[in-house]
Fold this protein.
Amino acid sequence: MKSHHDMGGQPGGRVEPQKENDPHDYAGWERRIDAMAVLLWGLKGTKKYFTVDEHRKAIESLPPEAYDSMAYYEKWIVALAQCTVQRGVVTSAEVAQKMRDVMFMRQHHDLGGRPAGKVEPTEHDYADWERRVDALAVLLGSQKVLSVDERRRAIESLPPEAYDAMSYYERWTMALAQTLIQRGIITTEELAKKMHERG
Amino acid sequence: MKDQDQGKYRPLSYFQLMEISLRELLVEKGILTNAQVDAEVENMRLRTPERGARVVARAWVDADFKKRLLENGTKACEELGLDVPALKLLAVENTPQVHNAIVCTLCSCYPRMLLGIPPDWYKSRNYRSRMVREPRAVLAEFGLNLPEKVQIRVHDSTADMRYIVLPMRPAGTEGWSEERLAALVNRDSMIGVAVPKGPTD
Amino acid sequence: MNEARFKPGERVRVMKAYPPGHIRTPHYIRGCVGEVERICGAFPNPEELAQMRDGLPAQPLYRVRFLQKNIWPDYAGSASDVLEVEIYQHWLEPA
């Protein structure tokens, strides 16, 4: 029985050549898929996770309608997903979770269920400045100068790299500043001046 | 001359500078006073897990108090002169069949009025990420291995409630005073990643 | 305050919505089905408080209990393990 991908000798329509000066400019995502495949096949001195043949077989196993309607690199990425799951590099659940996160824009601080490492039971004796930041936040909240949720939102709005690189009270400090500025209680100019004076 | 002379001066970090600047601006604008900030810092130093331990010890010796605590945590704490303002306290009880643990996956919500400031690990990426998904593995990392027949209830503190775990009273403590019992109740047992010390620990 | 629509014991589904802003419904629980464990009371909406608005009328807040195995396809603990999450009424629909 002939497999669907095995096209030699089948009837077909006209070949549509691309215009000479207008080749398909491969998009970033397509180039990345190509690069990932090459690396995972172990062709660049990297570890081989699965073979080119397994990759081909995964593509060939696509149902005919899918095979025909999917673009070239769409077939590749499905095959890569298939092979990595088959080889236990990732689990289906992990891929599903990750796709859900990416598709539905999980916010960076929303950590529940994300893969992570061992919990190191570290503690540190909080520095005076950290305690003062905490006190400031509590006082401003209890005096209704700003709400806890405004502060939280400011923390959540930090760029991911900043969120990860900053310590807990550094984030609080930043969030307090942002919130106070947003509320018009202080201005950016005032804060800049004061930090310049005291720095 | 500098050999033995270990000064403590360190240049301020950007964020320390920001803290000082914010505070001075707020004081200049009459929104806060330095005395208020100092007083609040002091208040927070006084809030240690011993407060939570008192509540647990009372619940261990007084069955009616325990009932009231489980029904309305905030009110029960007020009976002991501990206020848990605005936020609602929920005490969740450990039994031989059920073990409770607390996490705040979104930030670091914690029953500060009873336990003080949360430890670093409670606020860490790893704890917040994994505690809801693989609580048994995380508890095992803390040295707590629970049999499968014990139901684990993880509470994700996402909104206005705050939680404290009411651990089981250790065996061999019959007739102990509240004070003696309270000394067995460590902070981690009220978060749910540990059990209280035993009488011989 | 807005009226409480759900009762303890009722099965509810968390909406599968992914809006921007300050949201207190964790990503991992959206779309999941659980049981109302209790009504916690009504509180100003934190999504609105975060935007410097007053968050009124107060929204009913529920604790909803979920079986872990219904949240995580690869959950490795006991089949009876649960996760209890506080969720605002506007994120819940009958299941």
Notes: The beta strands of chain C are 11-14, 33-43, 59-67, 82-88, 92-94. The interface with chain A takes residues 18, 20-23, 26-30, 46-47, 49-52, 55, 71-74 of chain C (CB under 8 Å). Chain C has a mean pLDDT of 95. The radius of gyration of chain C is 14 Å.
